[in-house]
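Design a sequence for this backbone.
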């Protein structure tokens, strides 16, 4: 696996790439991509970092696993490639934005437009074998992405962390709450949303209110 990551992240993450766990992970990913169909495309694995440069990070959204259906994953959590049907979680995210901000439901599920505004769309695991959810978990990705979260927490100030669902909420221990804002709610998946744990969280307006308060540009959700 070739690490194609934007220059702005390198000085903060180069030490991780040299660690034995990451070298083992890279070898595992290389073999998986050679032997099986995997997602996202190898060129897109580090898109979260390539679309959202380190100095521009204002918001972090943490997902768990890339989508494992054909053509869906594009390296950004909850996002799908252009012209793909929106998965249920993404539908619920857009519905909440509609009611929270009055924004019309978008045609495209490609969230690179958020990433370019400073939203780090980080999955805990950056790769997956086709049609096998969780198949690349516990191979080292979580160690790396935890290091990313810690780095953002340590090296930056006043970032909004949006932690959706039980898995993401566990990451709060990596974040310095004295200098960052953490907003938590249920996961946008239908299982959680239909039980009343997602809708009405107002995370998008709350994020923008905080960014306004600290004189940063709001996100055009």
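Sequence:
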């Amino acid at each position: 696996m070739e690490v194609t990551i934007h220059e702005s992240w390198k000085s903060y993450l180069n030490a991780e790439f040299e660690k034995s766990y990451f070298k083992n992970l890279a070898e595992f990913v290389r073999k998986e991509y050679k032997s099986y169909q995997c997602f996202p495309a190898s060129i897109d694995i580090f898109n979260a970092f390539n679309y959202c440069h380190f100095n521009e990070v204002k918001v972090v959204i943490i997902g768990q696993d890339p989508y494992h259906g054909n053509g869906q994953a594009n390296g950004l959590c909850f996002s799908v490639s252009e012209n793909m049907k929106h998965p249920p979680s993404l539908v619920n995210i857009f519905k909440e934005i509609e009611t929270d901000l009055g924004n019309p439901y978008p045609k495209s599920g490609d969230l690179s437009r958020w990433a370019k505004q400073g939203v780090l769309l980080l999955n805990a695991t950056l790769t997956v074998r086709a049609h096998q959810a969780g198949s690349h978990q516990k191979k080292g990705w979580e160690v790396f992405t935890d290091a990313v979260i810690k780095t953002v927490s340590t090296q930056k100030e006043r970032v909004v962390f949006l932690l959706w669902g039980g898995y993401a909420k566990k990451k709060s221990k990596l974040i310095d709450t004295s200098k960052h804002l953490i907003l938590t709610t249920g996961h946008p998946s239908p299982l959680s949303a239909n039980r009343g744990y997602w809708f009405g969280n107002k995370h998008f307006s709350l994020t923008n209110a905080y960014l306004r308060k600290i004189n940063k540009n709001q996100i055009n959700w």
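The first helix runs from residue 7 to 17.
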